[in-house]
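From the shared-data thread, chain only:
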Amino acid sequence: MNTLNKVKNAMFPRRAYSEDGLAQWPSRTSFLLASIATSVYRWVDVVSQVGWPAFGIYNFGDLGGIIFGCAVAHSVSPETGAGVGFGLYIVCSFVALFIDRTPDSLAPRFFGKNAFANRFWWLAFYQGNQLRRDLNVTVAIGKAWSIPLAWGVCLRYVAAPVLGIIFSFSYPSFTPDRSDSLEVWRFFVSQCVIFVAIAGFLLPRFLSILVPKERRGEGERTYAPQVILGSDDLRVSQGVENGDQDSSGLDSGSDKAYDEKINKIDKMEK
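Structure, as tokens:
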């Protein structure tokens, strides 16, 4: 395979260079945005449990640590940038922990046995864990594997900082090649990815045209802490793997498979 790629690159060097760049630039931006999605997923539940001040301060420390840490690392030194990033996150975490209110919904496992641990779980781990649980309703169908418990933690606290560092090299690396038309095109595509992602977050109704009219109301979620979304919709929880559907478009199987799946998810968290 490597020999084939070398031959292709030798025959079409410009094309290979363009394909590599088109894949590289958007991935630097889109992967980072996907990783920090756990900071906003089901934020209504967190705000209702701990309050706006604690939620805002903690997320400022989380995202601000990545942003300011990378900025200081480029302008001063990597060691100083790491100190600023970790320091900002630790300070904001302690401040948020002491100003938030006590949640009325207990966290799972040992987190629910201590007031401060319960608060910290809601601030730090609820959104990633709930995203995992909601996705497992669709992902863990039949014999498919469930998303592991550590997935949400890795996505927010490992992938996001690493991708933030990679993203911080994007703009400096563009400067030497800004006279290259292909490099300018790749840079433009990556900025479009950022614009569409931010616009979709701030103005989500503009994307309603892409959603079937009968399902547009599903995005209007109310306050439901630790409640699995989609568990009451057979189109989501059972899927259409076997292609066996009734006239309404729903899976015609019994509710037994659905109940077993929900019990499976609950057992994984105990």
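Residues 7-17, 240-255 have pLDDT under 50 and may be disordered.
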